[in-house]
Structure prediction request, 110 residues.
Amino acid sequence: PGDIVIAYFTGLGAVNGTPQTGVPAPADTLFPILGQLKCQFSPVQSAMETVYAGLAPLMIGIYQVVFRMPADAGTAPITGLQCSLQTASGGGSFGIFGAPVSVPDPVLTP
Prediction:
Protein backbone atom coordinates (compact mmCIF):
# COMPACT_ATOMS: atom_id res chain seq x y z
CA PRO A 1 0.00 0.00 0.00
CA GLY A 2 1.23 3.47 -0.92
CA ASP A 3 4.01 2.20 -3.19
CA ILE A 4 4.71 4.15 -6.37
CA VAL A 5 4.39 2.36 -9.74
CA ILE A 6 5.64 3.90 -12.99
CA ALA A 7 4.28 2.64 -16.32
CA TYR A 8 4.83 3.74 -19.91
CA PHE A 9 2.09 3.94 -22.56
CA THR A 10 1.42 5.18 -26.09
CA GLY A 11 -1.75 6.73 -27.46
CA LEU A 12 -3.09 8.60 -24.42
CA GLY A 13 -4.01 11.62 -26.54
CA ALA A 14 -3.53 15.36 -26.37
CA VAL A 15 -1.52 17.05 -23.66
CA ASN A 16 -1.68 20.40 -21.92
CA GLY A 17 0.81 22.69 -23.62
CA THR A 18 2.49 22.62 -27.00
CA PRO A 19 5.51 20.32 -26.99
CA GLN A 20 7.72 20.41 -30.06
CA THR A 21 6.89 17.57 -32.48
CA GLY A 22 9.54 14.97 -33.26
CA VAL A 23 11.91 15.80 -30.42
CA PRO A 24 12.15 14.36 -26.91
CA ALA A 25 9.93 15.94 -24.28
CA PRO A 26 11.98 18.26 -22.09
CA ALA A 27 13.05 17.16 -18.62
CA ASP A 28 12.24 20.52 -17.05
CA THR A 29 8.63 20.96 -18.28
CA LEU A 30 5.71 18.58 -17.70
CA PHE A 31 3.04 18.03 -20.36
CA PRO A 32 0.11 16.25 -18.61
CA ILE A 33 -2.66 14.62 -20.63
CA LEU A 34 -5.89 16.58 -21.04
CA GLY A 35 -8.00 13.64 -19.92
CA GLN A 36 -8.29 11.63 -16.73
CA LEU A 37 -6.71 8.16 -16.53
CA LYS A 38 -7.81 5.66 -13.86
CA CYS A 39 -6.28 2.21 -13.53
CA GLN A 40 -6.33 -0.78 -11.23
CA PHE A 41 -4.34 -3.96 -11.11
CA SER A 42 -6.00 -7.36 -11.07
CA PRO A 43 -6.87 -9.17 -8.88
CA VAL A 44 -9.55 -6.62 -8.13
CA GLN A 45 -8.68 -3.82 -5.75
CA SER A 46 -9.45 -0.13 -5.54
CA ALA A 47 -8.28 2.15 -8.33
CA MET A 48 -4.76 3.47 -7.98
CA GLU A 49 -4.21 7.20 -7.52
CA THR A 50 -2.85 8.68 -10.75
CA VAL A 51 -0.13 11.05 -9.58
CA TYR A 52 0.95 12.06 -13.11
CA ALA A 53 -0.02 11.05 -16.64
CA GLY A 54 1.70 12.89 -19.46
CA LEU A 55 4.61 12.94 -21.84
CA ALA A 56 7.64 11.06 -20.56
CA PRO A 57 10.64 13.35 -20.12
CA LEU A 58 13.43 12.80 -22.66
CA MET A 59 11.30 10.46 -24.82
CA ILE A 60 9.45 10.94 -28.12
CA GLY A 61 5.77 9.93 -28.25
CA ILE A 62 5.81 8.01 -24.96
CA TYR A 63 3.60 8.77 -21.98
CA GLN A 64 4.74 8.23 -18.40
CA VAL A 65 2.12 7.41 -15.79
CA VAL A 66 2.92 7.49 -12.09
CA PHE A 67 0.51 5.60 -9.81
CA ARG A 68 0.26 5.25 -6.04
CA MET A 69 -0.99 1.84 -4.93
CA PRO A 70 -4.25 1.86 -2.93
CA ALA A 71 -4.54 1.04 0.75
CA ASP A 72 -6.19 -2.32 -0.06
CA ALA A 73 -3.34 -3.49 -2.31
CA GLY A 74 -2.70 -7.08 -1.36
CA THR A 75 0.26 -9.37 -1.86
CA ALA A 76 -1.34 -11.59 -4.52
CA PRO A 77 0.48 -11.82 -7.86
CA ILE A 78 -0.57 -9.24 -10.45
CA THR A 79 -2.52 -10.79 -13.33
CA GLY A 80 -3.58 -7.71 -15.29
CA LEU A 81 -4.17 -4.01 -15.55
CA GLN A 82 -7.51 -2.39 -16.41
CA CYS A 83 -7.64 1.33 -17.30
CA SER A 84 -10.20 3.90 -18.36
CA LEU A 85 -9.41 7.21 -20.06
CA GLN A 86 -11.90 10.08 -20.12
CA THR A 87 -11.34 13.16 -22.29
CA ALA A 88 -13.47 16.10 -23.36
CA SER A 89 -14.15 14.33 -26.68
CA GLY A 90 -15.07 10.95 -25.18
CA GLY A 91 -13.40 8.04 -23.51
CA GLY A 92 -12.62 4.39 -23.55
CA SER A 93 -11.02 1.59 -21.64
CA PHE A 94 -8.27 -0.93 -22.19
CA GLY A 95 -6.73 -3.83 -20.37
CA ILE A 96 -3.54 -5.84 -20.29
CA PHE A 97 -3.78 -9.40 -19.03
CA GLY A 98 -1.36 -12.28 -18.82
CA ALA A 99 0.34 -14.75 -16.54
CA PRO A 100 0.64 -13.77 -12.87
CA VAL A 101 3.60 -11.55 -12.08
CA SER A 102 5.03 -11.22 -8.60
CA VAL A 103 6.82 -8.00 -7.76
CA PRO A 104 9.65 -8.81 -5.34
CA ASP A 105 10.48 -6.56 -2.43
CA PRO A 106 13.46 -4.36 -3.19
CA VAL A 107 16.75 -5.45 -1.73
CA LEU A 108 18.54 -2.58 -0.09
CA THR A 109 22.29 -2.81 0.34
CA PRO A 110 24.32 -0.39 2.42
